[in-house]
Specification:
Length: 133
């Protein structure tokens, strides 16, 4: 895993969450700010659960082990998201639109992350195991 990409990912999600929360708090009050924090927090915690599940793989893990770890991590991520949404519905029913807006905007980070340039040997044309491509 590329730590720089992971840090950038979490910082972007956190900054979106903080910005929307501040805006909601300023315009709609503290309850709306808390709803926005919770909405962004759902994504942050779910992504953290995913990263932690994948991070435990040994460096020499096979492709099969990596695929299995990704599948388990995705299941954990969905479980965290569903559980936190169940809590959110009960706590923030009156500000659910603010919560969902924050959740959806922080979710967009996933799609933009696919466009990011990942530093490392992938872009140099050098395969660590077999030399030049």
């Amino acid at each position: 895993m590329n730590r720089l990409v992971i840090v950038r990912f979490f910082l972007l999600q956190a900054s979106i969450t903080a910005t929307i929360s501040a805006f909601a708090g300023w315009n709609l009050g503290g309850y709306a700010a808390a709803a926005a924090l919770f909405g962004g927090g759902i994504n942050l915690l779910a992504a953290m659960a995913f990263v932690l599940r994948v991070a435990v793989l040994p460096p020499d893990a096979t492709a099969e082990m990596r695929l299995a770890a990704l599948a388990r991590a995705e299941i954990v991520k969905w479980g965290v998201s569903i559980g936190l949404f169940a809590i959110a519905i009960r706590l923030f029913a009156d500000q659910f639109l603010v919560l969902m807006l924050t959740y959806l905007l922080t979710s967009s980070v996933y799609w933009f992350a696919l466009l990011w340039d990942v530093p490392g040997e992938r872009h140099t044309g050098v395969d660590r195991n077999h030399g030049q491509h």
